[in-house]
Amino acid sequence: MRSPLSIATCQFPVEADIAHNRDWIVRQITEAAGRGARIAHFSEAALSGYAGVDFASFDGFDWELLRRATQAVCRAAREHRVWVLLGSAHRLSGDHKPHNCVYVISDTGDVVERYDKRFCTGVLEPAPEMDLAHYSPGNRPCVFDVDGWRCGVLVCYDYRFPELYRELKGLGVEVLFQSFHNARRDRETHENGNVWKEIVPATMMCHAATNYFWVSANNSTAEFSSWASFFVRPDGLIAGRLKLHEPGVLISQADPDAGHWDASAPWRQRAMSGRLHSGETVADPRSDDRRCL
Predict the structure, then answer these.
(1) Which has the minimum average pLDDT: 18-22, 100-104, 186-190?
(2) Strand, coil or helix: what is 259?
(3) How far apart are CA 160 and CA 226, in angstroms?
(4) In 10 A of CB 265, how many CB atoms?
(5) What's residue 65's pLDDT?
């Protein structure tokens, strides 16, 4: 019988300063472990900073400093015996733009998997913009197992594509870690045009309920941040939330015995196989005639 999985959803003000980010991450790993967490989850680009937002571009970026900082996070994971999901940037070869990634670091301090953000924001024509000006999209899902729980990872703009969630459901995912960076908005946008504070939680609640996922969703607290990190139960209800613009660690439990309502359970697998109805259809001319009364 599986035990509950204790999850730390972590948030802090992500900066262009890698050392600043590293220190926050190590400190929050220590706090998470002290509070009994098995996994510490960090936001998009938490260690590297976010190109185009926290800093202008990767021109002159100190990749060696990032490598050493990543090793420090791995040591903290090993020391405290916790898994760490670390938002960062993954350098590629030659002229290829890096991936916007989340490293999966085991409780032995080893990088055992990596998710590369597949839906990067922006367009390619007439010129690359937003994420696509700085990052190369990934091309595969990421799943891993912790203490008998199948886990998956997605990043920020991926949340707009329900196909990714169905793919992960088909791979047996039960706990989803979604790393965001919806921060550094200007004051006017934050106060008068912040649609993300409603859209992001609502969308993640829907993905949780339709797929019966536990969901950890976090964000940078750099002002102005669009919303605070939160945790969603598999019935779609938010179980906990941190405070906006305040660093913090939210501890939540994925509990196999919680008994949350799964409204889609009787028919989900059939729908995923392409049979998009419940029960049995009937052969009836009055069913076939769409114009009759």
Answers:
(1) 186-190
(2) coil
(3) 16
(4) 9
(5) 98
DSSP count for the chain of H helices, then E strands? 7, 12
| Residue found by looking up tokens 């009836």 in the block | 284
Computed over every residue of the chain, the mean pLDDT equals 97
pLDDT-derived band at 66 (thresholds 50, 70, 90) equals very high
Residue type, 153: V
Q: Are 170 and 144 in contact (CB under 8 A)?
A: no
Nearest alpha carbon to residue 89 among 45, 35, 56, 127:
45
Per-residue pLDDT for 188 more than 80? yes
Residue given tokens 């098995």 in the structure block: 38
Is the confidence at residue 1, as pLDDT, over 80? no
* CB 182 within 8 Å of CB 196: yes
Q: Is residue 2 very low, low, confident or very high in pLDDT (cuts 50, 70, 90)?
A: confident
pTM: 0.97
What does each C-alpha distance from 109 to 91, 113, 217 come to in angstroms?
A: 20, 12, 23
Domain residue ranges of the chain, discontinuous segments joined by +: 5-265
The DSSP code for 38 is: S
DSSP letters, 143-210, are EEEETTEEEEEEEGGGGG-HHHHHHHHHTT--EEEEE-------HHHHHH--THHHHHHHHHHHHHHH
CATH number for the segment(s) 5-265? 3.60.110.10
List own/partner pairs for 91-96 with CB under 8 A and 24 or more apart: 91/63, 91/66, 92/136, 96/136
What is the C-alpha to C-alpha distance for residues 92 and 70, in angstroms, rounded to an integer?
Answer: 16
